[in-house]
Amino acid sequence: AQKITQTQPGMFVQEKEAVTLDCTYDTSDPSYGLFWYKQPSSGEMIFLIYQGSYDQQNATEGRYSLNFQKARKSANLVISASQLGDSAMYFCAMREGSAGGTSYGKLTFGQGTILTVHP
Amino acid sequence: GAVVSQHPSWVICKSGTSVKIECRSLDFQATTMFWYRQFPKQSLMLMATSNEGSKATYEQGVEKDKFLINHASLTLSTLTVTSAHPEDSSFYICSARPYLDRLGTGELFFGEGSRLTVL
Question: Which whole-number Å values give the CA distances from A39 to A36, A47, A91, B39, in the listed order?
Fold first, then answer.
């Protein structure tokens, strides 16, 4: 079964508008972490935001916020006031388990969403 | 922030030759490094988990004799693609988990990636 699902292969948004990128996940582990990364055409992976499974509040980092709905197992990324430089591929990823294991930090990635910001 | 350097950033080789890709954590010690493979406009697929001083753990379907991983020190892991063929052409990206996970998130730091083209 797919552990991380991003159902939007591509999204378009007008500059200065907000956009939501969807992500749902599946795990039976009570301890997990959810990450969003941005990958521009250069290929580097840029960390955007993190949400822990026990965090009570939704994570925010500048123009990025994570809409965490634990019961629905969704972790959507909201980008406010889109900029042309936001055009890139965006990945949702999940880390399962608690610190201490030798594979702690192993991430499972979603399929990605290509975001295009129009002027 | 923590820096992970990957070298070379791109390489072209002839079919049948071997190619080595290095992944270095420049300002932190990395107990664990992960190697991912990514085809154009697709997700990152985990190939193997590399722990310093021990054999790498390969994901199902990844040929360990084809993709040799060595993690000789806390700051260096290498991936060697042996007897490369055109179907091995891909973007290979490493990530490192700091020995001290200061944020407690299990966050990984990614290298810039290496684009391999096999002729």
Answer: 10, 9, 8, 13
